[in-house]
Amino acid sequence: DSDGVQLINNLVGTRANGIYPLGNQHLGVRVGRSRAVVLNGNTIAYNMGQGLSLWDAPSNDPAVPGFVPSQVTLSGGSMHSNEQLGIDLIVDGDPVVYGLTGNDAGDGDSGPNGLVNFPVLESAKWDGTHVELTGIVEGAGVATRVDIYANTYCDLNGYGEGQLHVGHVDVVGNGTFSWSGESPESVGRMLTATATTFEGTSE
Predict the structure, then answer these.
(1) Looking at the DSSP assignment, which residues form a beta bridge with residue 186?
(2) Could you give the CA distance from residue 72 to residue 76 in angstroms, rounded to a whole number?
(3) Coil, strand or helix: which one is 43?
(4) Is the model's pTM score more than 0.85?
(5) Are 47 and 21 in contact (CB under 8 A)?
(6) How does pLDDT run across 81-123, given as a tens digit for each residue?
(7) Before 95, cis peptide (omega within 30)?
(8) What whole-number distance in Å separates Cα of residue 72 and Cα of residue 56?
C-alpha cells in the first residue's frame, strides 16, 4: 500500500538457498493501494495462493475512496509452483473475479494495471541452435515489452507461470512478434510470456 516501492532480488516462498519450499499459507506478494511498483529478479514460489496478486480490497469505510493498483511491473526472476495463478489481476465487483482474466479486443477494459492483455503465443521451434517463437500482442497500440519464460509444466488451468526467464522482445503497437534466442534450456519446456506497457504487467 505504498507508491514507488521496489522489490528486487528477493526470495518469497523459498528457503535461503532459493530452491527448497517455504511457501506462505496464502499468496506470495499482494499489491493494493499502490502505483509504480517494480518487481525485478525475484523468486516467488511454493505459495498456497497466487504468486503476485493485484487487488485493492474494498473498504467498509465510506470515507476511504476506491483505488486500483496500477503501473505494477514484473520482469525477470522466477515464478513457479504457486497453487493459483502466477500473476492475478483481480477484478473488483459483485462477485469479485479471481483467476484468469481473458483478453479483450483493443484492451479497452479497466482494472488493476488496466487489465493489460497477455501475449498469445502461436508457435515455438528449436532448430538445434535457437528457439524461434512467434506470437500476437493485441492492445491499445502502445509500446510493449514481452518477457518470455520457460516452465517445466503449465498450471492445471493450462497457463504457466514464469519459472525461467529466457529473453524479451520489444513490440511497437499491435500485431505479431517474433523472438529468437539461444536457449537450449527451453527445449522440452512450456513457454509463457507477459506483456508490460505503461499501465503495468499482464497476467
Answers:
(1) none
(2) 14
(3) strand
(4) yes
(5) no
(6) 999 999 999 988 778 888 999 999 888 888 999 999 999 999 9
(7) yes
(8) 13
